[in-house]
Fold these 2 entries.
Entry 1:
Amino acid sequence: MSGNNNNNSYTSIDKSNLLNPEIDEENQMFRRRRTEENDEEERAQINDRPKPKGPTWKGESAKSVVYGGLDAIVTCFSLISSISSGGSMSSVDVLVLGFANLVADGISMGFGDFLSSSTEKEMAFKERDVTQWEVDNHAMSQITHLIERYRELGMDPRDATTVVEIFSKYKNIMVDEKMMGQKGIVPPNEEEKPWKSGLVTFTSFLLFGCAPLLSFIILIPFTNDDTIKFIGACILSVLALTLLGLAKAKISGGSYTLSALMTVSNGVIAAAVAYAIGWSLRNLAGLEDP
């Protein structure tokens, strides 16, 4: 029993080396000051402050859906805008280029998300190994650093020492706390699957990216005017961006209006720039088909 305990805990902190009479006096003054300044205000606010709205969907999938969907709409809409600025391509050309670009970009985005998630996870595991070694071989210096950090955050010295003394009894907690507190790295999650993030990004990219192209399919039986089809693509793109913005606000618990305005503004600005560049190259620079 005693040997097992030694493997999973550290020798208790010698408080005489970390605290002294001057710190005790500072501790007492600190507590009195905090009590006088904060207690009354906290009592006045504790019953009036409503509970903040939290996110409704947590995890990496939420990031992949929003990231893939927004990039898909903006990319596809910008491509259609640049093509339509010249007016020399038919609806078939737009659909061929649009869907080819959509699938290719979707594969690239999904694989890129997989690689970035894998790299982030591998780096977290490597950093945890380094932190584990530091805690195993330089326990007292790591304990001292944590105490100083908690004091900088506003914790009085005795409480900081007590908290770190408790952490020091458990290696895993000590390592995770050092990673988050001192290095700003979230400990790796064994259940996180990078391939899942890549698949969600790819699927979201294809689904949302189809929105601007639907106009050129739906309106085929009704009109041959490519300008009308382009206007329809603009409307569908704005609707898709708005829905994505509302979904983002629902997931994160943020403002629906602000989120929708941000996503729509992003798409409108990107499409306007693409249209302007396409028009300028054709009409000002003279880059026309022979």
Note: Residues 60-282 form one domain.
Entry 2:
Amino acid sequence: MSNWITDNKPAAMVAGVGLLLFLGLSATGYIVNSKRSELDKKISIAAKEIKSANAAEITPSRSSNEELEKELNRYAKAVGSLETAYKPFLASSALVPTTPTAFQNELKTFRDSLISSCKKKNILITDTSSWLGFQVYSTQAPSVQAASTLGFELKAINSLVNKLAECGLSKFIKVYRPQLPIETPANNPEESDEADQAPWTPMPLEIAFQGDRESVLKAMNAITGMQDYLFTVNSIRIRNERMMPPPIANPAAAKPAAAQPATGAASLTPADEAAAPAAPAIQQVIKPYMGKEQVFVQVSLNLVHFNQPKAQEPSED
């Protein structure tokens, strides 16, 4: 081999140069192909991103604006319906300026009217119930700051109890209301930040009454169906005046059927028809199960007062 290279130097040089050129071109092609492959990958990824971006329209667009407008219209309609439903409650929550003496006079007027109404309807009412939960103010006047708020609460409870009196109840057992924070001087600051004030204030109330099943159902519907004042039900306790079920008497022994005639058609007349008048009336048999007994109900409520700008309190002069 070496002899051939020695003898053919020109040809060997040409072959060596050709080999070097081939190797160089191969290496250059490999590098270029690698870069092109990497570039193709980047182009493919970019194409996919552009395609996905085009698939979902960039908001805002005409269609997205139309959908948003529909949602806003539905929201406005719902808010309008809510405002219409709560409008009577908002109107009644407006505090009317009053004096402690005027509040006491109104309390006594409501009490006398309630007692008279219950007497006409044959409804028993306890003394504590007749004061509508404000018995403490039968002998002492409320503070000037609390008079307007208590006036709202008094009107609402009086309206509710008179509605219940129209349901056919037989007795008002209890009307109880705990003191509100405004009734306690220590919990009644002179200045309050209206921005931090809750939009409404719950005023707890408990009412206990007695009646038959029908009147109790009417009373519960009356509580939840008040038109001027909003009452929410926290809990209900119901007890039947009969703690034990009525006894079941032994039914009369069944009488054997009379013998049928030996010949001819069978008689269609019951065998014990003659003894029917002696059997107990059906009304007497089912009377213990007809639900005519009295039912005792105790309802825990919240009277909702929607807070509004404070009314200016009048002077006692």
Note: The helical segments are 2-7, 9-55, 62-92, 100-120, 127-130, 144-165, 213-224, 282-286.
